[in-house]
Amino acid sequence: MVNRNLIRTYDIADEEFEQYLAEAGAAEPEAIQWGGEEIGINQIVKGKVVRVEGDRVVVDVGYKSEGVIPLSEWDEQPEPGQQLKVLIEDLEDVSGAYDDESGMIALSKRKAEKIQAWMKVMETVHEGDVVTGQVTRKIKGGLLVDIGVNVFLPASQVDIRRPHDIGDYIGRTIQCLVLKIDESRRNIVVSRRALIEAERAEKKEQLLATLEVGQVRKGTVKNIADFGAFVDLGGIDGLLHITDMSWGRIGHPSQMVSIDQEIEVMVLHIDREKEKIALGLKQLTPSPWENIEEKYPVGSIVKGEVVNVMSYGAFVKLEEGIEGLVHISEMSWTKRINHPSELVQIGDEINVVVLGINKEKQEISLGMKQTQENPWDRVADRYPPGTVVTGTVRNLTNYGAFIEIEEGIDGLLHVSDMSWTRKISHPSEIVEKGQEITCKVLSVDQQRRRIALGLKQLEEDPWANEIPNRYQAGQVVTGVVTKITNFGVFVGLENGLEGLLHISELADHKVENPEEIVKVGDEIEVKILRVDQEERKIGLSRKRVEWAEETQSQQSEAATETRATSPSAPAVELKGGVGSDTGPLIKPQSSAPEEAKEPEQAD
Question: Which pTM value belongs to this model?
């Protein structure tokens, strides 16, 4: 019987073995009665060629009936009287009755030869022996190898790593280890992989005993992956990582090595416990980083080739194995760069300045902008305070607008420097993106690379003379409600100039909510309480306008009563005059005595 536990030990799939058994199996010998005599089916007997009839050969095997063999089993035409051994396969019943002697015996010369060869092999071959044979053909599940008889080599046992196509082995002479012999079914299972593993185990033990870090060894490339190549050192594989193949940049290990290539490598690391070996190829040549500071001193200008472009910068090759990074921030003094590809492409040759070297990490920092003059070095000379410049609004923020006055040079126009009189909440109230605008340079901070611009400074400050002359305490003016807050109302007077009407000055009674009295957009009369030049504020009152109106009304009524009770009163309105000695005939009254004592109202 077949020892299936042994078969599974060598990872042979059951379907592989069953397929071979189906093809290579042989029936057991048996005896049947034929014409009164016993004939041994599946037995080998001696025979003699009697004659050739068409496509078959008649052979006398010593029974009452003769036997027949297909002529195709001969390579050359058989001659009558030729002696040979044949296998009794079956009985051909011509008459329809087994006891009739009119039938013939079916024979096979070829099968008899195979069985004889099998018996000869069995005398010399045993389980565990190493046999040599030629691969004859491919069958489902493996290969047939001729060692005198065909033996089965499962696909999983062809090599340590299963080949892409086992058919490539057809015609090759190989050595295999005999795994199992099944005499009853006349089949042998062999393994080339088991033999290789046994040989490698022995070589591995010898190799590990002599292997040392720093040694240079010859090996054969057995497999290539994206991260490196496996090199057979003769009993054990070592990993040649892609980073240890070349001092320069490579995209894939196949650029450096190929399968079955013999190469020299240096042993970099040995893990004897895990039987792992790290190998190096580039270490066979001197490192270009050894005298890096002498070749590329900091501050020197060198030429290089752009080999890679990332979102954060560009890698520049200075020589084979030496690459430096130009960070995106080191590409231009003035241009706003979203991606390095806006300035450089792979393959470009550019000049760079060496900014720094980290020999330990094998890193070089490079700069492109340092090869050109920094325009900020002359900004203070070109734009001294007071200079009037014209630029384009590039960006708006909550606190102001950035104005580009030349490529890469921006100035900030703060909201507080946009208008002398208006209270601006957002710069979009004055300017818009893309607009061309003229401003005055207020200050230049060359160290921090900042320029302060002003728009209102192009005109004279109206708070110096114009506003104090136009608006004075006690004056009644008309304005429009622009904004309502919980502490009062802002009233627009003219050209963005606003005054504050405090909630306490809205009406004689206490006001909780200003919107109960006025609405935004209402046109109202207000009285100016004060004009503060230093704080640039105007205080207003609405209730005092009503006080003045009441006072004027009372004076008018008093004058009417006087004229009605005096019979000598003239019929026309009296006007003041000046006498020769005694002064005015009618002494003018103060329009509103109370107003002189008005309390100051805070904004």
Answer: 0.44
